[in-house]
């Protein structure tokens, strides 16, 4: 009974509490207490969550930079970048940090800052010289002579230098500028000459292995002129008085460049004519040929004239596009340029004009003949007029080259000799005809005359100096190359033939019977007309046209070009 009363009393107490709790007076008080309980629970929960991330213990970080150590404290979860920012240490654009700046720090850490600098520095450095060895029959066998002492060059080099913590780690050469070119050491080594010394008139200059040599009066009397090793042999010509050499040298980035050098000096300093890319033509003027064009104030000082034509370099075959232009230079006795002018501006040059034009200065000084693949013209240098002389059917080469007829003036300037492309004698087309004839054309009126039939396309005509005959008449001879196989003259070898100006007294003089023929190339008469010179198997040979006897002058098989002139000893 007592337990029942207790239960009833408990139920009545709970009922009273409920009614009190839901009474209007208790509602605000109850809501405030609930809010306090919730806030307290939330604080306990957040404290429980935050405790594992930072443990309320900061992470110690040491930063090594610029030779000092900086200590900072950071909450766990910070990055290396945060540490650097808090320390106040700034990074340069090239500086490196270890560990990387994005690394998260969760424990005590050492951060290293590596200072990196980049600079440009210029240094001078020596350029070693090369040693060149020339073999010559001009000195006794086994003897060695120092022709030129070697000298170190000097260059300026710009380096990009990268340093880390003050120590050089990378050094890269960016640019080289030559301040002084090295001078090669040149030794001449004697070789036994198998040739009997031969005397001749004038001087012979020849290019061998990129160098220029001079032989004067006697085959054993030879000496070097240019020892640069870069002559290309395209232009190689002595001045009319034999005192200067005109030549082309290889030029980096271009085809070549035009130069002159004194022949009367020992290893003269070459003089640049500031002309580049000369393929087909450059020539000394006959006498002082420029005086017709020069102004009065410099005309008296003109000693030499030079003409040249240029091309533009191209990557495709044949390696150039011809300008078909013509320029004249006037020089004084020392080689100083006095005047220059353009006679023909750059032009297409007719059919196959991309190949180029061949010019030949008349001995009369005031005109030039020039040949292209489709004909021959006359240029009046005084009036500037151009007249057509001969129309020629262009030869179809089926290759990346064009055939241009060879031309040569008589020594008196009255007749122009040339190679004509004739009509076919077989079933080939007119353009593919293998017929090439030697013709003569009087300049002052008259008709062309065919002197020799089927000489071949590469005949390299050359007239001798005028000779006095017993009757007092001036006479001369014509030398040319005759193809051994005229119907295949493009690949045929040739024989050297001389004849009188009218085509009579024709005879073969070189090579001797039974020997292989000549590769087509230049022919030169001696200044007195008593000898001829040709290249045979890349060596220079002298020939007596009367007897047919010959003598080899060089034995290295490297001769590229040559010329022969009389020397004016009075200058």
Major pleated sheet: 4 strands, mixed
Provide the β-strand percentage band: 35-45%
N-to-C CA distance: 164 Å
CATH superfamily of the domain at 117-180: Resuscitation-promoting factor rpfb
| CATH-scheme architecture of the domain at 117-180 | Single Sheet
**How confident is the prediction overall: mean pLDDT?**
86
CATH class categorisation of the domain at 117-180: Mainly Beta
Low-confidence stretches: 1-7, 32-55
The CATH topology of the domain at 117-180 is what? Resuscitation-promoting factor rpfb fold
Helix vs. strand class:
mainly beta
Principal-axes geometry comes out as elongated
Number of strands: 42
Q: Portion of residues in helices?
A: 10-25%
- Helix segment count? 4
Radius of gyration: 46 Å
Largest beta sheet: strand ordering? 2-1-4-3
Explain what the structure shows.
There is one protein chain. By secondary structure, the chain is mainly beta. Among the domains are: 59-114, Phosphatidylinositol 3-kinase Catalytic Subunit, Chain A, domain 1 (Ubiquitin-like (UB roll), Roll); 117-180, Resuscitation-promoting factor rpfb fold, CATH 2.20.230.10. 11% of the residues lie in helices and 43% in strands. The protein has 4 helices and 42 strands. A 4-stranded mixed sheet has the order 2-1-4-3, with helices on one face. A 4-stranded antiparallel sheet has the order 13-12-11-42, with no helix packed on it. The relative contact order is 0.07.
């Amino acid at each position: 009974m007592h337990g029942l009363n207790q239960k009833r009393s408990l139920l009545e107490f709970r009922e009273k509490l409920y009614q009190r709790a839901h009474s209007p007076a208790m509602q605000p008080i109850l809501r405030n207490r609930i809010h306090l309980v919730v806030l307290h629970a939330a604080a306990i929960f957040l404290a429980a969550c935050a405790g594992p991330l930072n443990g309320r213990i900061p992470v110690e970080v040491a930063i090594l930079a610029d030779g000092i150590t900086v200590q900072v404290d950071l909450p766990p979860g910070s990055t290396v970048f945060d540490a650097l920012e808090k320390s106040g240490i700034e990074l340069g654009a090239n500086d490196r940090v270890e560990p990387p700046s994005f690394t998260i720090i969760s424990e005590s850490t050492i951060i290293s800052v590596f200072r990196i600098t980049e600079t440009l520095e210029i240094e001078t450095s020596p350029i070693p010289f090369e040693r060149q060895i020339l073999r010559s029959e001009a000195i006794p066998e086994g003897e060695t002579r120092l022709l030129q002492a070697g000298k170190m060059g000097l260059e300026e080099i710009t380096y990009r230098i990268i340093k880390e913590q003050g120590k050089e780690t990378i050094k890269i050469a960016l640019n080289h500028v030559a301040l002084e070119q090295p001078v090669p050491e040149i030794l001449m080594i004697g070789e036994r000459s198998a040739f009997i010394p031969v005397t001749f008139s004038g001087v012979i200059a020849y290019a061998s292995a990129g160098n220029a040599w001079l032989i004067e009066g006697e085959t054993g009397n030879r000496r070097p002129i240019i020892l640069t090793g870069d002559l290309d042999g395209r232009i190689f010509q002595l001045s009319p008085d034999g005192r200067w050499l005109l030549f082309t040298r290889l030029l980096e980035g271009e085809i070549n460049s035009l130069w002159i050098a004194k022949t009367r000096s020992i290893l003269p300093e070459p003089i640049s004519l500031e002309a580049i890319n000369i393929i087909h033509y450059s020539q000394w003027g006959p006498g002082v040929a420029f005086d017709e064009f020069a102004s009065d104030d410099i005309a008296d000082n003109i000693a030499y004239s030079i003409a040249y034509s240029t091309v533009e370099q191209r990557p495709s075959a044949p390696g150039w596009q011809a300008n078909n232009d013509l320029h004249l230079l006037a020089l004084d006795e020392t080689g100083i340029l006095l005047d220059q002018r353009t006679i023909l501006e750059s032009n297409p040059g007719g059919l196959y004009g991309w190949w180029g034009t061949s010019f030949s200065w008349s001995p009369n000084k005031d005109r030039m003949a020039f040949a292209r693949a489709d004909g021959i013209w006359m240029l009046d240098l005084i009036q500037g007029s151009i007249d057509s002389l001969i129309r020629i059917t262009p030869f179809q080469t089926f290759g990346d080259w064009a055939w241009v007829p060879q031309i040569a003036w008589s020594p008196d300037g009255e007749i122009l000799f040339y190679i004509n492309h004739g009509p076919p004698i077989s079933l080939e087309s007119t353009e593919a005809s293998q017929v090439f004839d030697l013709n003569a054309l009087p300049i002052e009126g008259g008709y062309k005359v065919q002197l020799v039939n089927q000489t071949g396309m590469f005949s390299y005509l050359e007239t001798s100096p005028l000779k006095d005959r017993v009757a007092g008449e001036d006479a001369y001879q014509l030398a040319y190359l005759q193809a051994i196989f005229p119907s295949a003259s493009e690949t045929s070898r040739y024989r050297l033939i001389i004849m009188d100006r009218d085509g009579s007294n024709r005879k073969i003089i070189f090579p001797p019977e039974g020997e292989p023929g000549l590769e087509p190339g230049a022919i030169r008469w001696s200044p007195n007309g008593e000898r001829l010179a040709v290249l045979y198997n890349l060596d220079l040979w002298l020939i007596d046209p009367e007897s047919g006897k010959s003598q080899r002058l060089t034995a290295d098989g490297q001769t590229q070009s040559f010329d022969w002139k009389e020397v004016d000893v009075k200058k």
